[in-house]
Amino acid sequence: MESYFLDWANLLLRWLHVITAIAWIGSSFYFVFLDSSLTPPEDEDLKKQGVSGELWAVHGGGFYHPVKFAVSPPRLPGHLHWFYWESYSTWLSGFALFTVSYLWSASTYLIDKSRMDWAPAEAIAAALAFLVVFWLLYDGICRLFGHKKHGDAIVGALVLVLVSVASWLACHWFAGRAAFLLVGAMMATAMSANVFFWIIPGQRTVVAQIKAGQPVDPVHGKRGKQRSVHNTYFTLPVLFAMLSGHYSFTWGHPQNWLVLIVMMVAGAAIRQFFVLRHGYKLGRNSHPLPYAVVGVALVVAVVGWLRPVSVAIDSGASGEGAANATGRNDYISVQAVLAQRCTQCHGAQVQMKNLRLDSADSVRQHAQAIYQQAVVQKLMPMNNATQMTDAERALIGRWYLAGGATE
């Protein structure tokens, strides 16, 4: 019953997380587009008001005319919309989902004893430390170098090194799928912290200065813009890290840390293409196509690198719980493997994912999924916690390919 309620919690939290993430990322993408597409105002009245840029757009049957003030508007409107709950809701729902999916069952989903044999409490503490330590180091880099000459390039290079080191550590300390998600959560935490500690406080200071009739310090806008730009480059890498959990050929690779780094670099390069594309249309920068070419080339290279190798099913294979002496691939032999390696989580007492593997009918019904998960992708047992051998996987493969689902 606990597994059933955890599945519901996982589903509802994932639903909420996706909805809020769409709202946050969508608004982030829109404002990057808007800021890059603004042109100097033509109307003299707008110039007198301190407008530094404007954009005419058409959408949904209506015309829109947003404008941007150089530092602050002449007066504050009665209603000022703030963009922050999208970020906070995304982080809160994501952390809750991470807790339910990984921290709650750390011994199953977070820990891979072949990498680090530590207690669940230790693994949980280390995972949470990733979120905090990365933010502190990233924030320190921005504070030290963000205001210097060529600061953006320096910060970008150092953050790339920081993310690479964190990816290597995560993939060597935690189960592969958990490591990828943890790196994504780590970067997403920094994104939300940028909003919480820098962007929103800076905006509140500006609003307070305007209300008090004081000169507005432009540094707050510059800092907020810098952190907002960092967030937009984090977005595609974070999305890849989050989504890759469904594809074991990425995090299950022996060099999974390198797979993660290369794909995140590809995502950042592709994002750079879209950021600069708006400025290119207005003649502000050269054509950003090389960034897209680099990003796509990296993705294609990884696709080729991770291409699957045909699974060789040795008809003579034998081993613990494997085929019988005659090599006949019947359900009795497979059942022995499933009973030893799988029914702890998929049996009468516990039915994770509502799946039982102690029933012949259920095994045959889900034979294709068992073959894909245990033989082709080697995804199950989770982190191979029950030590299923290659011979046992070969047995399942021979049984399935011989028509086990229809026996």
UniProtKB/TrEMBL annotation:
UniProt xrefs under InterPro entries: Cyt_c-like_dom_sf, Urate_ox_N
Membrane spanning stretches: 12-33, 91-111, 123-141, 153-175, 181-200, 232-251, 257-276, 288-306
Domain Urate oxidase N-terminal: 4-300
Keywords per UniProt: Membrane, Transmembrane, Transmembrane helix
Keyword Hydrolase assigned: no
Gene Ontology molecular function terms on file: electron transfer activity; heme binding
Domain of life, per lineage: Bacteria
Full protein name: Urate oxidase N-terminal domain-containing protein
Organism: Acidovorax carolinensis
